[in-house]
Design a protein that fits this description.
Oligomer: single chain
Shape: globular
Strand order of the largest sheet: 2-1-3-12-4
Distance between the termini: 16 Å
Low-confidence stretches: 1-36
Strand content: 5-15%
Mean pLDDT: 89
Largest sheet: 5 strands, mixed
Length: 533
């Protein structure tokens, strides 16, 4: 394994901790076997504002079940995760468990410092949920196995149908009905729709105050290009994807990319994309969005999920619904999608842990269906009941959530999403009662309905969520190139859309492509190919 570069302070701290003579995996298991009495495990993770992890029901009930007490080592929600990790390592006080998501580079660093416990022996136990998961999903094995052939982390998967593709656009449903408009199916119909929002006063206040299409800067799929480029050129963040043969395809210099920019520039020139889109932040956008229906001004906005930005005290999730991918002039109707949902490495037992058997069992439970239920829905009889009614999969019984499940999250809800491992399955994920009267309390309906509109048009981008690479040259080049190209491309396409540069000028377009080449595009693509391989 080639050495991977990490911040000097973190590397030095890891070396110092390792020098203390932490016991080997085998020694730890012997010590755990000899220990008696209650077990306490220290668990490092980011706090969630408004939640006391010591008294939350999921914590107290799971402690009763296992006899294991968790000593939560929480770092502030305002602190960057990498910064918090480096400070924790530098402090020399390694916890038993590192919760939440970890990248392969961080895991490699811990492995090289002798601080991450290999889980292979525990996983091979036929009764472990981890082993059952790998039998059901053999493709996971490559993603969880480090370059040295060992497994050091648990996993967190998200099988939600909404996760396959996030490049969505949301429209004010009431405005369509009021103006007698149907959902647009082509770029031209989309332009006609948002023009009608400006001209026909859909909010009924007698003013031309409607914002036809507005996004915001650095939001999760909050740039209009993420949806509106697709009728011309398949869009994916990072500006590349892999075809089915594994070849890296760069997208930001094609004729289709230029045609898409022409379309976006025409919308902007007509005043159909609001200038705020390229300067405002999420808070400013939410202030525009979250207004009572009679005062609404936002017609359309891009986002991965509308509910992430809607204030439920003001609006309902269904006030905005998803627009299906548009069919372009050449017949393209598509959206980039991942296969099998979201996959992350989540949860590491450290070699400082004196009770690794207990730590593994505590974490392994969350890879079971029962553990999945606990982390998503809480405790039966407290936060939900089982009732004789069909769930969203059409099966009975189903889980009926407590009426105040979505409001009393300081005491009712489980830990923040991603705190503990999860093996997500549709059978559990969509096991809540299919009750249309509760679609504003249970977001399953809106997520599923939006996904249905996109599923027929999926194009697999074949970019894996997890890539193990310990070659420092490849890692450094990929990171450096990505920073340069992502910043340059976004700056340039924004300039073309806003008219600061003329997308119809061959000279301007050729100058843009020449600069991509000068920045090292060919080498960047070659580096990405090596990285994914």
């Amino acid at each position: 394994m080639k050495k991977v570069f990490f911040p000097a302070a973190a590397v030095a701290a890891i070396a110092g901790i390792a020098a203390l003579g932490l016991a080997s995996c085998g020694a730890k298991k012997q010590e755990a076997a000899a220990s008696t009495g209650p077990v306490t495990l220290s668990f490092w993770v980011q706090e969630t504002l408004g939640k006391d992890y010591n008294t939350i029901i999921a914590t107290t009930e799971y402690e009763k079940k296992t006899g294991v007490h968790i000593d939560w080592k929480l770092f502030p929600s305002s602190q960057n995760g990498n910064e918090a990790f480096n400070l924790m390592i530098a402090g020399g006080n390694l916890p038993d468990i590192l919760g939440s998501t970890h990248g392969t580079e961080r895991i490699n660093m811990l492995v090289e410092g002798g601080l991450a416990l290999a889980l292979d022996t525990y996983i091979q136990n036929a009764g472990s949920n981890y082993n059952k998961m790998l039998q059901e999903q053999p493709q996971y094995r490559d993603m969880v196995t480090a370059d040295d052939g060992h497994i050091y982390s648990f996993v967190y998967t998200d099988s939600g149908v909404h996760k396959d593709s996030e490049y969505k656009m949301w429209v004010k449903t009431e405005w369509l009905a009021k103006l007698g408009l149907k959902e647009p199916s082509t770029p031209q119909e989309f332009a006609d729709m948002i023009r009608a929002f400006i001209e026909q006063d859909p909010n009924g206040n007698g003013k031309k105050d409607e914002l036809p299409l507005v996004g915001w800067v650095n939001g999760r799929q909050a740039d209009p290009i993420n949806f509106l480029m697709n009728p011309y050129q398949l869009f994916r963040e990072g500006y590349h994807y892999r075809d089915d043969s594994g070849k890296v395809i760069f997208i930001a210099n094609t004729d289709g990319w230029r045609d898409g920019l022409r379309y976006l520039a025409s919308l902007y020139k007509q005043g159909l994309i609001m200038p705020e889109t390229y300067v405002q932040d999420e808070t400013q956008f939410k202030n525009l969005l979250n207004r009572p229906s009679e005062e609404a001004i936002v017609g359309v906005f891009p986002a991965w999920y509308q509910g992430a930005y809607i204030d439920h005290t003001v609006l309902n999730w269904n006030d905005y619904t998803a627009i299906s991918p548009l069919k372009g002039p050449s017949g393209l109707q598509q959206t980039a999608a991942r296969k099998g949902g979201n996959f992350n490495l989540n949860g590491i037992i450290t070699t400082a842990c004196k009770n690794p058997d207990a730590a593994f069992a505590w974490m392994d439970y969350f890879l079971s269906d029962a553990g999945n239920e606990l982390s998503m829905f809480g405790v039966e009889g407290v936060t939900f009941e089982r009732v004789d009614a069909p769930d969203w999969n059409g099966k009975s019984p189903s889980i009926k959530l407590h009426p105040d499940f979505d409001k009393l999250n300081t005491i009712m809800m489980p830990w923040n999403s991603g705190t503990v491992p999860r093996y997500d399955k549709a059978a559990v994920r969509y096991s809540t009662t299919a009750d249309m009267s509760r679609i504003e309390a249970d977001n399953t309906y809106v997520l599923v309905e939006a996904a249905k509109k996109y599923e027929p048009y999926y194009v697999w981008h074949n970019i894996p969520d997890i890539v193990w690479c310990s070659d420092q040259d490849i890692l450094t080049k990929r990171t450096d190139y990505a920073t340069v190209f992502n910043d340059f491309i976004k700056t340039e396409y924004t300039a073309f859309i806003r008219g600061d540069k003329d997308i119809n000028s061959d000279a301007a377009w050729n100058a843009y492509k020449a600069e991509l080449d000068r920045l090292g595009l060919a080498d960047y693509i070659a580096t990405l190919q090596k990285y994914y391989n």
